[in-house]
């Protein structure tokens, strides 16, 4: 079984993880677990969450690392940095959204990737960010083993990550995205009612 670890810090953006985690968790080939720098975190929406792992206890055999945005990514934490660095060094699939992308920029992880994020201007303020020419103004961008997205792109983020890891066919992933973006009845008008 493949393993996805979602890193959620305190004051995490719960809506940014919802589509991706639910799609993966319904797939019998994937297991979704969470990690943080403390045992319990609370989302921006007030959801109290007990995480599965402290950062130092994340297993080595993961297939996907997902960095969910929020209000705590302006953090200096060696364990967090090392988990992310090891994932990049070992070509693990990585998805980062919203403020988590800022963290990657601030720590020099985006310097060899095409990417997007909340603000190119903001990233340019980070001394370790040296790749402004590869910032693309798009909801989500995939480059090799990395997907980045801005904070309004939960669906596009999910779509790109699922395609990156080949969770299903591109056609089925696009259909799922269309349903959540435009609603059930628009989906039925385009693709037909799945229950008939």
Detailed description of the structure:
- There is one protein chain.
- The protein has helices spanning 14-25, 78-89, 99-106, 120-124, 154-164, 170-182, 184-191; strands spanning 2-7, 30-36, 40-42, 48-50, 53-54, 64-67, 93-97, 140-143, 146-149.
- The strands form two sheets. The chain has a seven-stranded mixed beta sheet, sandwiched between helices. A two-stranded antiparallel ribbon has the order 3-4.
- The two termini are 32 Å apart.
- Helices cover 35% and strands 19% of the residues.
- The model has no long low-confidence stretch (mean pLDDT 96).
- It is built from seven helices and nine strands.
- It is α/β, with parallel strands linked by helices.
The number of helical runs is 7
Q: Walk across the major sheet and give the strand order.
A: 5-2-1-6-7-9-8
Distance between the termini: 32 Å
What's the mean pLDDT score? 96
Q: Which shape, going by the Cα principal axes?
A: globular
Strand content: 15-25%
Give the helix proportion (percent range). 25-40%
Unreliable stretches: none
The rounded Rg comes to 17 Å
Provide the succession of SSEs: EHEEEEEHEHHEEHHH
Structural class: alpha/beta
What is the total tally of β strands?
9
| Main beta sheet | 7 strands, mixed
